[in-house]
RNA sequence: GGGCGAUUAGCUCAGUUGGUUAGAGCGCAUGCAUGACACGCAUGAGGUCACAGGUUCGAAUCCUGUAUCGCCCACCA
């Protein structure tokens, strides 16, 4: 064929047009049809503010490999794409931008305006990361792209919230949140970073009530929190304090009389003085202690981080007040000063400790007691039983349920609770996690059954669909002391649910789609507002909508009830086949999807979970912006091409939890890169050139199919055998998520077997225009392009389009299946012999440049070997560039011959020897063999031991020993001839 | 503190239930402009499998311990 291709593959000119061809062909778009073989997965939706990083790239590569593989196999294949609104992260980014440009805070703009601006921002930048995913070749069904805040997802969120509210799985509770006093918002745990701060540990003397001059000494790094102490705790078994059990101390500065309590969980008697101050409202451990002992919780903070009216009192006849002072700074100073004056400071030590800081405002966070919404994770049983895992949430531990235990899943089955339902799905194998060890993290985390705080004090997100009104003052209802009680529930036409908790009535509205006529929803809201109800200002934790992602993107709660194709997605593609993600969100996300899938829709969201490794830099550090050690996949696409990026990432995707990627700065561009990507680029280039060679040497009308009778030549039988082994390996490695094995199988077949050996062997026939070789070449090329396509889609599609008689696209071509009849072990062992003889000759030629072109004498071990070699002269001779002068059992060694001793044959090239080179080499080999043979003999000589070893293994050892001995004898002979 | 993982060639990693002389790519060394490819071809040199014990006829592989590194979770008043 007359073909005009550049000698180097240029991904930049190929990738874009190819991608557009795929889009135009609608190959990515999945529509439910009659097929029962299906493959589906949902993308872990990237953050809308995000940019592609290597984590996305490796995960995208993995998902795309599977998606393309299944599509080619003929499965109805859906890869559902989308973006996450990412609550706080997005709001913070936009707020920051607005502040930088306009010097306005969100309070200046107001809620509506800020949300409008974030949407505007989303419209402008939201598609960036999806475009970047497309640039690495991701074959997502872009027509179905979802956003966690779009109407379809919002409907699912409100539906799920309503259902849980109605079932008593959502409740109001107090909880310590991480309070960012600067932004005046609660901050999620994972948005906190810790910084080591040099602080001091102060020991304070608390006078014992009714025992003059006796003090309990407590140590603290947060002296200002003492204003909120409601107890001091000692260990119940600590003999030093037994006499104080049941006694009280007087809280300095405040004058409050607080009890000495015994608590074995909080107090470590060996630490410090063995006495701990207890501040339930400002410390998580103390909070849990407070719940255990029914202690008063005194909040000292105003939302902007100052001391509130609780921060005052009277001690020893003197009034003290800290109201209005900044809590952790001014108030602390003042408290310490006053204690000093009173002589109540026993000791001050420098103490380094970790202080949580808000990632957004970079200011220290404060534990802050506030009302929040929770999803109940634990088993629903009578509250007389203590909650599992000692969860400290008020609402949880006091939750009562009078009628029945457990919850009902959407399939009608019962489960003890949400967490347990999700645990069972993994323990009984409905969800399989790969690598298996991660199942343990999943189960451990869920096993704690900690209630999930789902409210966030933000404006960007799904607003909580609850309106509330106080029906009794908290005093009247006794809410402060009595456990929160679930009083009442009713629904009205299944769209309104009401709960009363702590004297407040909460009205939850279902999604507006449930209301009829359409304006009934707005009408209901208007009525609620008129009656004095206000909508909860908070929004839901981002993970709430993420937890619904597999069902919401497929249209839940619509479930095949209408004829519309989109309503058929859920029954057709759910449960999805696979979820591929990073281990860090196994709990936050994966566990919650399983819960919600079971609870809302009655089935697990995916059958398989694959956890990919995390890419680190060459020193084993995580890639971080602050370290400047990150590699940007977009840069790699520009420098090496998307296929090179994908191939390299696949080849690094082993089952370990971390993979290291040495990072270097590119001298020309100043951009971070890694020599690892050269591997992919070089391979792409190899594919390009081999294809170029094949295409320029086949007839335009050449058919790729092979007819049985044509395949007679050894090398032809061999390459087809290798090809079919490779097909098998490709199926196996993809199905077991072994992507590094996949890449290696592809590389070694294409590069070593096909290019280095087959093409070289076949060159003479190729030049001669042999049509059998042409059809085999085409067959191999066509098949390997298919095998390679899932990993390297662009270059393979491009070459595919150059094949003769090619009209359809590779992306939808049928994936190769193994033809077991082509596996030919005889051909494989014969070619292996040819390869080792050829290499041996080349080795001699390398050792003795003078040997080049000189005749070779071969002395085979037996007639069998002799015959194989004899038949393969025409292969060996051109490959090694020699003439085989003799090949016989009785061959005599030429004068001054250089020697290569193989197990099957001795290779001689005469007239070139240099004793100084030859002797040490032979001696070294002799010593090696002597050692090996001796140990082998010893092994076989131990008769008592041999009796226990399987006969086949023993026979293997004997054969091995024979080989050693034969080779050793040959070496000895050669040494003798050299006069050693 | 709890859990998980890693430690194999200079580097990055394979090594599937214990059983031929532990492999690959990169890098290195030597040679090569050979009608596909120098992003290439050929050849070679590199390993006490972290350390110490144990089980076994036999251990990179199983067990125990130690060291170093990393991750996740919980946190030291």
What's the short version?
The protein is of the alpha+beta class and 980 residues long.
Describe the SSE topology:
Blueprint: H1 11-25, E1 38-42, H2 54-72, E2 76-80, E3 82-83, H3 87-102, H4 106-109, H5 111-125, H6 128-135, E4 146-147, H7 151-166, E5 170-180, E6 185-187, E7 192-207, E8 215-220, E9 231-234, E10 248-250, E11 257-262, E12 275-278, H8 284-293, E13 312-315, E14 318-321, H9 327-342, E15 345-358, E16 366-375, H10 394-397, E17 407-408, E18 414-415, H11 418-427, E19 432-434, H12 438-447, E20 452-453, E21 455-456, E22 466-470, H13 474-477, E23 496-501, E24 504-509, H14 519-530, E25 534-535, E26 539-540, H15 542-547, H16 549-552, H17 569-573, E27 576-582, H18 586-601, E28 606-612, E29 614-617, H19 633-640, H20 642-652, E30 658-661, E31 664-665, E32 672-673, H21 676-696, H22 714-735, H23 739-768, H24 771-788, H25 793-800, H26 825-847, E33 856-860, H27 863-871, H28 873-880, E34 884-887, E35 898-901, E36 905-909, H29 915-941, H30 943-946, H31 951-977
Parallel strand pairs: 1-2, 3-4, 9-11, 19-28, 27-28, 29-30, 33-34
Antiparallel strand pairs: 5-6, 5-16, 7-8, 7-15, 9-12, 10-11, 13-14, 16-20, 17-18, 21-26, 22-24, 22-25, 23-24, 31-32, 33-36, 35-36
Helix pairs in contact: 1-25, 2-20, 3-5, 11-12, 11-18, 19-20, 20-21, 20-23, 21-23, 22-23, 22-24, 22-26, 23-24, 24-25, 26-28, 29-31
The structure holds one RNA strand of 77 nucleotides.
């Amino acid at each position: 064929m007359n073909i005009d291709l550049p000698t180097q593959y240029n991904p930049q000119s190929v990738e874009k047009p190819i991608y557009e061809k795929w889009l135009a062909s609608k190959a990515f778009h999945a529509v439910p049809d009659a097929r029962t073989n299906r493959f589906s997965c949902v993308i872990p939706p990237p953050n809308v503010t995000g940019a592609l990083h290597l984590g996305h790239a490796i995960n995208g590569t993995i998902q795309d490999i599977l998606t393309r593989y299944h599509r080619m196999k003929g499965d109805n294949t859906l890869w559902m794409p989308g973006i996450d609104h990412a609550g706080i992260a997005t709001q913070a980014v936009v707020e920051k931008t607005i502040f930088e440009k306009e010097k306005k805070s969100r309070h200046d703009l107001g809620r509506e305006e800020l949300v409008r601006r974030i949407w505007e921002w989303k419209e402008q930048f939201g598609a960036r990361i999806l475009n970047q995913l497309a640039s690495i070749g991701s074959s997502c069904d872009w027509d179905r792209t979802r956003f966690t805040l779009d109407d379809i997802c919002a409907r699912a969120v409100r539906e799920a919230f309503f259902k849980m509210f109605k079932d008593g799985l959502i409740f109001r509770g107090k909880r310590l949140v991480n309070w960012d006093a600067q932004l005046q918002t609660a901050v999620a745990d994972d948005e906190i970073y810790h910084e080591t701060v040099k602080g001091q540990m102060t020991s304070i003397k608390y006078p014992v009530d009714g025992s003059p001059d006796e003090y309990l000494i407590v140590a603290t790094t947060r002296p200002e929190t003492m204003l909120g102490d409601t107890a001091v705790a000692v260990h119940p078994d600590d003999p030093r304090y037994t006499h104080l059990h049941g006694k009280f101390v007087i809280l300095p500065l405040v004058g409050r009389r607080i009890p000495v309590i015994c608590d074995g969980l909080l107090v470590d008697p060996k630490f410090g003085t063995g006495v701990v101050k207890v501040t339930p409202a400002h410390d998580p451990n103390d909070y849990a202690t407070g719940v255990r002992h029914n202690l008063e919780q005194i909040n000292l903070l105003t939302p902007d981080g100052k001391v509130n009216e609780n921060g005052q009192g009277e001690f020893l006849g003197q009034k003290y007040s800290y109201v209005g002072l900044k809590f952790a700074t001014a108030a602390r100073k003042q408290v310490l000063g006053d204690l000093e004056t009173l002589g109540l400071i026993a000791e001050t030590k420098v103490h380094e400790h970790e202080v949580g800081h808000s990632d957004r405002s970079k200011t220290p966070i404060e534990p802050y007691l506030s009302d929040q919404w929770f999803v109940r994770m634990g088993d629903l049983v009578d509250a007389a039983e203590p909650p599992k895992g000692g969860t400290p949430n008020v609402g949880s531990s006091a939750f009562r349920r009078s009628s029945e235990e457990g919850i009902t899943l959407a399939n009608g089955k019962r489960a003890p609770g949400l967490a347990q339902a999700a645990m069972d799905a993994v323990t009984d194998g409905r969800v399989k996690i790969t690598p298996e060890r991660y199942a343990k993290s999943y189960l451990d985390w869920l096993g704690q059954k900690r209630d999930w705080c789902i409210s966030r004090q933000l404006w960007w997100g799904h607003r909580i669909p609850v309106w509330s009104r106080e029906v009794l003052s908290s005093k009247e209802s006794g809410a402060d002391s009595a456990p929160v009680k679930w009083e009442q529930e009713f629904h009205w036409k299944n769209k309104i649910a009401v709960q009363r908790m702590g004297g407040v009535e909460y009205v939850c509205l279902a999604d507006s789609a449930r209301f009829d006529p359409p304006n009934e929803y707005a009408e209901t809201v208007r009525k609620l507002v008129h009656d004095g109800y206000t909508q909860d200002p908070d929004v839901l934790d981002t993970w709430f909508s993420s937890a619904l992602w597999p069902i919401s993107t497929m249209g839940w709660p619509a479930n095949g009830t209408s004829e519309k194709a989109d309503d058929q997605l859920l029954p057709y593609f759910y449960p999805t086949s696979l979820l591929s993600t990073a281990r860090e969100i196994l709990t936050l996300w994966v566990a919650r999807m399983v819960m919600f899938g079971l609870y809302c829709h009655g089935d697990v969201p995916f059958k398989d979970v694959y956890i990919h490794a995390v890419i680190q830099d060459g020193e084993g550090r995580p890639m971080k912006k602050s370290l400047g050690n990150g590699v940007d996949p977009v840069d790699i696409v520009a420098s090496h091409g998307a296929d090179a990026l994908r191939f390299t990432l696949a080849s690094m995707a082993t089952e370990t939890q971390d993979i290291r990627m040495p990072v270097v700065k590119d001298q020309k561009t100043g951009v971070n890169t890694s020599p690892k990507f050269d591997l992919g680029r070089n391979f792409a280039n190899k594919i390009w050139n081999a294809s170029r060679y094949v295409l320029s040497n086949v007839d335009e009308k050449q058919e790729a199919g092979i007819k049985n009778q044509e395949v007679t030549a050894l090398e032809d039988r061999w390459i087809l055998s290798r090809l079919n082994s490779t097909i098998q390996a490709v199926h196996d490695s993809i199905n077991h998520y072994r992507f590094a094995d996949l890449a290696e199988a592809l590389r070694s077949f294409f590069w070593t077997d096909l290019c280095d050996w087959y093409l070289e062997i076949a060159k003479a026939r190729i030049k001669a225009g042999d049509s059998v070789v042409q059809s085999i070449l085409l067959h191999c090329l066509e098949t390997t392009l298919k095998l390679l396509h899932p990993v390297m889609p662009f270059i393979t599609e491009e070459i595919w389009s150059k094949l003769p008689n090619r009209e359809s696209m590779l992306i939808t071509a049928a994936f190769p299946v193994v033809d077991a009849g082509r596996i030919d072990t005889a051909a494989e062992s014969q070619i292996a012999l040819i390869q080792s003889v050829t290499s041996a000759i080349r080795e001699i030629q390398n050792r003795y440049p003078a040997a080049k072109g000189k005749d070779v004498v071969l002395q085979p071990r037996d007639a069998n070997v002799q015959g194989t070699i004899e038949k393969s002269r025409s292969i060996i001779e051109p490959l090694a560039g020699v003439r085989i002068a003799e090949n016989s059992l009785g061959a005599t060694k030429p004068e001054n011959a250089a020697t290569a001793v193989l197990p099957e044959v001795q290779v001689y090239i005469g007239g070139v020897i240099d004793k100084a080179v030859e002797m040490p080499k032979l001696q070294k080999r002799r010593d090696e063999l002597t050692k090996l043979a001796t140990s082998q003999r010893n092994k076989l000589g131990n008769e008592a031991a041999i009796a226990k070893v399987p006969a086949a293994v023993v026979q293997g050892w004997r054969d091995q020993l024979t080989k050693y001995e034969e080779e050793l004898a040959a070496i000895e002979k050669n040494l003798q001839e050299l006069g050693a």
